[in-house]
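Section 3.1: Structural characterization of target chains.
Under the original work plan, the team committed to producing a structural model for every single-chain target entering the pipeline before any wet-lab resources were allocated. The record below documents one such target. The sequence was received from the expression subgroup and is listed exactly as submitted; it comprises 282 residues.
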Amino acid sequence: MVLRDFKVYNKNKDPIRGDVCIPELNRRFPVIIICHGFKGFKDWGFFPYVSEVLCKKGFITVKFNFSGSGIGEDLREFTDMDRFASNTYSREIDDLHCVLDELEKGRICEKLGYFDRIGLLGHSRGGGIAVLKAAADKRIRTLVTWNAISHVERRSFLDELPRWKRQGYIEIANVRTGRMMRLGTALMEDIQKYGQTKLNVLKAAGRIDAPFLIIHAEKDESVPVREAREIFDHSNQLRSRLEIVQGSGHTFGCVHPFEGPAPDLKKVLSLTKDWFGNYLQS
């Protein structure tokens, strides 16, 4: 395997930092793009392990930090808090679009990928972004979501709405570090403007023609399992499949720093490998 870092820029000239894992040079492989969730990043917990396992199965894997993730140049710490504060769902969709474009141009892994065989893998909020993008971009041949959100109007945000409007920001706790992370009004305005149109995850799910695997933990404490059922109910059930992981939580038993794959993650990754194998390698 060959691991390479990359940095590209979105339309606002914000940096998108990522890495690409290539099974071997001088051959072409299908591509899987991995999208992290809210307060996540490309090297959180299980993501490097997932990328490596999928690469060993014959996929080019691309993982990246959304430009508004808050992770700075060191790729480990939340130091870019101004961009975090101004991040939105729309910007994350634009970031993913940028990564797809840069892949096609050969600026991420040269011309090693089969760019008519691209899959998305998204976790949590990244799963919602993957659904929204797959509904609008025919380059996506298949997608898998892990514990994806079914709507952008999160209860934790709605409960804070009066104070958010009044003071111009809210603060969200990073449970892992204990740090309070400030969100400005851009996210709220994005939701209010586009929540029922281009950011409507359930309507997007209904427009997806690509094969779609929805995996969700039964005991997810961050994104209730009913959201997976909502997505599945709105999807084309001739081309979608719902898998509930009994007794599992939002990160499938894994933590950061990574301590190895928990049994639930192994199960989820096995389902994911098989799905991508069926729809990207055949």
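The radius of gyration is 18 Å.
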